[in-house]
Amino acid sequence: MRESTRITELHGRRLLLGVTGSIAAYKAAELIRRLRKLGTEVQVLATEGAARFISATTLATLSGRPVLTDLFDGSEEDTWTKHITLGHWADLFVIAPATAQTLAKLANGFADNMLTATVLAARCPILVCPAMDHDMYMHPAVRLNLKRLQGFGYHVLPPGYGELASGLVGLGRLPEMDDILERMAALLPDELRGKHALVTAGPTREPIDPVRVLTNHSTGTMGFALAKDLVRRGAQVTLVTGPTLLNTPEGVRRIDITTSAEMLEAVLAHKDADIIFMAAAVADYTPIESHSSKIKKQEDQLTLRLQRTSDILAQLGKLRRDDQTLVGFAMETENGLVNARKKLREKNLDWIILNNVSEEGAGFGTETNRVTLIGRDGSSFPLEVMPKQEVATALLDRILTDCA
Are 4 and 178 in contact (CB under 8 A)? Predict the structure, then answer.
């Protein structure tokens, strides 16, 4: 197996793998195994013909996901829109092997199964790897279909030369695994390659005494989701996080802090990042005095004297370069748009993400979120309630498109 400096970039990426009814379909098992070892998320879309050569059970076991074939399999409530969701989810769509039949369908816009319908909905690069007998591959109809697909912007990896299933020798073999993987890596979205991203997440804890703290309900889920998606897009990511039970996303450099003062120090050490998401719920106040021993119950009332913590976001706003992108969060319960726009303006942000924690499905401790992205130019983009990882993807799609 030869070494590649790019194959490792498949780590953390989202891949749709189309498998069609070629005898080379059995090689999809090895391709999936290699991809999973690299840390790639793989969703298999198989045609009915593919099942004649490799079982759905095998493909599902290797990929860790159910194999999708029919547009209306009835297994999920959202089955009829699944092809749309997947088309937006993936970083790359690879069809290996691609038969003459599937090439003809793709060249003419057919959408009669999950694979062909998802191709039409895909926003990512599409790589087609033909595999068939030599004479079929050289037929003018197949050549025309491949040329037409390339005209659509699809990428074609030509088949290899060698002994074929028919016993003949010629073009038509599925390319070698390393060739497929290297071509896949070369097609990955890399809008943030070479960029450094800083993300803050989670709560801070301000000590009252050795056993008590001032804190909030943040779990860090939204910030961790952003960090994971930034890595997926090729960024070098530093995640500064308060106390949380979440696992570190692969490929992310994590810095754990406890107090707002520690977060300030860690953030300023990385203030030159190209893109900064301040998603942490930093305490606005901290006790003036932190007791060295536990405060005993004495009086019916206890008065705590608090002082303002440093405004980390405002400091970043003062220090920001013109070529940086600075994004803040506004956690509100009322007058959300007014307060968020004020914060965006006063703290010199490029974007602010409004999160009304009183709305159903939004806020702290939930798996979903509902936010509105507000730009420096006054534009606003409300998102529907969706899982926080999907929120992160949608936010980055919009922000990076605007920055391009």
Answer: yes
